[in-house]
Specification:
alpha/beta, Aspartate Aminotransferase, domain 1, Aspartate Aminotransferase, domain 2, 2 domains, seven-stranded mixed beta sheet, 9 helices, about 15% strand, globular
Amino acid sequence: MIFHKEQIINPDSFRQPSFFISPFTTADLKRNADIVKNSSFCEKTVSSYNDFFGQHEYFLSGKEAIFKALSHYDLTKEDEVLILTPSSNLYVSSCVTNEIEKICTWSREKSDKTKLIFVIHEFGKIFQDMETIKNYNLPIIEDCAMSLFSNNADHHIGSYGDFTIYSLPKFFPLQFGGILKINKPDYVVIEHKPYHDYLQKLVMHYLDDATNIINKRKDNYNYLLSALRRLGFKNFTEYSEFETPSVFMFENNGLHLSDFKIFMQKNGVECSIFYGKDVFFIPVHQALGVFEMDYIINLIEFFIHENK
C-alpha cells in the first residue's frame, strides 16, 4: 500500500473503495427497500413512466431481455443478425453476442443471410442512420442498455424497432433489472413476475428525477473532460444536446492499457478498454461528486507518474 495525496493506492481487497459504472452502492439496498415500502405516485409520474416505456416487460437483466426479444423471431442457426453501432468498432460486448449465439450467428456486414438488425446505441451515443436501415425491411431491435436517456433530434429512439432493450443499473441505483419495450402487437407480456412490482416502483421513483440525473451526468462529463485534458488526454466521444453519457471515454496517450485497467480495477474503479480502439472508459454517473472524481483522477495521475 502507498499513501498518496491523502488516499491509499493498492488498498487491502476488503477495504477497497467502489466506483462502479452503475450508480448503485450497498447503501441503496436499504434506500430502495424503503422506497418500495413507502412509495406512492401521482398521476403525472405514472403518465411520464408510461410515455417513456410504453408497453414493456421486466427482466432480471438486459441480457435476459435481449434473449427474449430474439426468441420472438423464427431464427435458425444459419441465420445472421446484423449488428450496427455508432462507432463502427468491430468489438461488440459479449453481453450482446453471447445472447445472439444462443439462437443464431451475427455479423457486422449485411448479407443474404441477414434476417434481423440489432442496433446498439453505444455508451449514450445514438446510431444516426435509423431511417436508412428501416428501408432494409428487416426486423429491428434497438439496444439502449447504455443509452437510456439518449435520443435523436426527432425523439424517435425506442420507436424504430420491434423491441428496445434497457439495462436499469446502468442509470439507476439498482442492483438488477432490465426492461424490454415492445412495439410488436403479437407479443404477449408476462407481468406476474416476483420482481415486477419491486422494479416498477423503483423505476417510477428514479425516472421522476430524470432531469437531475441527466444534468449531473453531463456536469460530471465536463469535469472529467477538463481534468483529463490537463493530463494530456482527449475525449473519444462528442455528445449532442439530446444524448447523455453512460461512461467517460478517452483516447489513450501512451499508457499500457492492459496494465492500466488492472491497476484501476485493483483500486476499486470499474473501467475497461474499448477493444478495437486505443480508448479507455471510466464511470461518469450521477452519484459521483467532485471528491470521487478527484479520487479517480489522482489514481490516473499516480499511474502515469509511476510508468513514465
